[in-house]
Write the structure tokens for this entry.
Amino acid sequence: MTDRLSKERRSWNMSRIKGKNTKPEMVVRSFLHAQGFRYRLHERKLPGRPDIVLPKFKTVIFVHGCFWHRHEGCRNCTTPTNRREFWLQKLTANARRDRIHDERLTGLGWRVIVIWECETKDLDKLRAKTACLSQVPEGATGQLDD
Ligand SMILES: [Zn+2]
């Protein structure tokens, strides 16, 4: 029993380090789950390894931290003044990588939804962001083979 607990604890620590299963992500997951949506997590077969994948709706969802992924115009999207150049380069690269993943996913027929960390604190925003899930987009061809 203690071994099992420590194992869970270890994987929890790992998930924290890799930025997966974060609090904002858990908020979105329970929000979707409560509405009856079923999804897959951290799909490594897809570009950018989307946090949440809804194959039935040909939709992937990224839950992005406002700082790390550069939420434009958001008050959490700050740049550290210490080693500013280093941070600017790193954070700009993150945002660029996100755009590339977005384009590749769209090219593969997936609809991409980005939910920002700050939006997970606002139920109305969450509703608005996921409203399009009520219908499968026309011409969507997203495939996920087992
Ligand atoms: Zn934000």
Observations:
- The helical segments are 2-17, 23-34, 84-107, 123-130.
- Residues 16 and 22 are 7 Å apart (CA to CA).
